[in-house]
Task: structure prediction
Amino acid sequence: MDYKKIDGGICAAKGFRASGTYCGIKKSADDTPETKHKNDVCLLVSDGLCNTAAVYTQNKVKGAPLLVTKANLEESGGKAIAVIANSKNANTCNADGVEKAERMCELVADELLIEKEHVLVASTGVIGQVLPIEPIEKAVPTLVKELSYTGNREAATAIMTTDTVKKEYAVEFELDGKTCRIGGMAKGSGMIHPNMATTLNFITTDCAVSAKLLQRALSDVVKVTYNCLSIDGDTSTNDMVILMSNGLAENAEIEHFGDEYKVFKDALYEVMKELTKMLAKDGEGATKLIECRCEGAPNTDTAIAVAKSVICSNLFKCAVFGEDANWGRILCAIGYADADIDIEKVDVELESEYGKILVCEYGAGVDFSEDEAAEILKSDEIIVNVSLYDGYCKATAWGCDLTYDYVKINGDYRT
Result:
């Protein structure tokens, strides 16, 4: 099946509108005209009621917006119409956090004349600082008024924190004689590590899918995309993925596993994979995207464990930043992966657009040109190919290099 990349992000699917604005959640004495009025709150609304699936962070500390979103979905039977999200303040570890998150849902529900439980909420930013609700109260009428079928850019920029670029991706495909679309937006640059959700992610589709299969598809795809992403080893408190399906493509609703479900799931994977790569490449202070492809594994879980272990290695991340082909750090990371492997069968190859080079064969080093390896590592996208020679399963994980700027960014994050 061919999936055509299209523009529009979360507004690519039929019947979804979005908006974003600056309300002033965070103000600083040294704000400049160039930085002060960046969007910090956004709204996503469907023209119809959506089957909605979600996956949440596994951190034991969970942000109030996540708790409220989960409760609303349970109360509504997995149905939603709108999502409101803000940046700059996570509304987490606050005594009045749930009250504020519920108030955000109420504000949107009242303005749109819908049920409160059909509104979901998300927040990202500094943990442990009280969220001022007054700026959001003033912003909601504006957000509703400015809703647009082309408002994806305003929404995508509103959820950025230390992100340097907005992250959007969308595809279209044919199903049941109908044109269907899936689009998404994501935020995240730091405090990102496997064990879902890793970031805030909002995905929309006009493809009609039952609530049960929508959740199954999302959970399965999360495992091989967002859960295979790591920037710094920290799993955030507010992370979630929300997937909304309004069925406006008018295909026959997908209610059973089969060819139609596979087409939809593969399209969902395409969107989530590309968003995952964008998140990895925009890691805080990052200069290079690292992609580890593990093949020849006895099962998918082994392949995932090995690939994730490599991209999570701080020593290897530093080596990539220094453009040093220190393959021993790769083998070391494979060795402590939570998987049963025969290290004497392992091959490792480094690759980029400048070529590829074998650096380890059967678990031991081979002669290779350091100059050639250095040339390969000059690229801003580095691929590590790991072959286990113990089966036919494979997986990919994504991360980034570890740089001086990562420490600078997180050394004064609150100020």
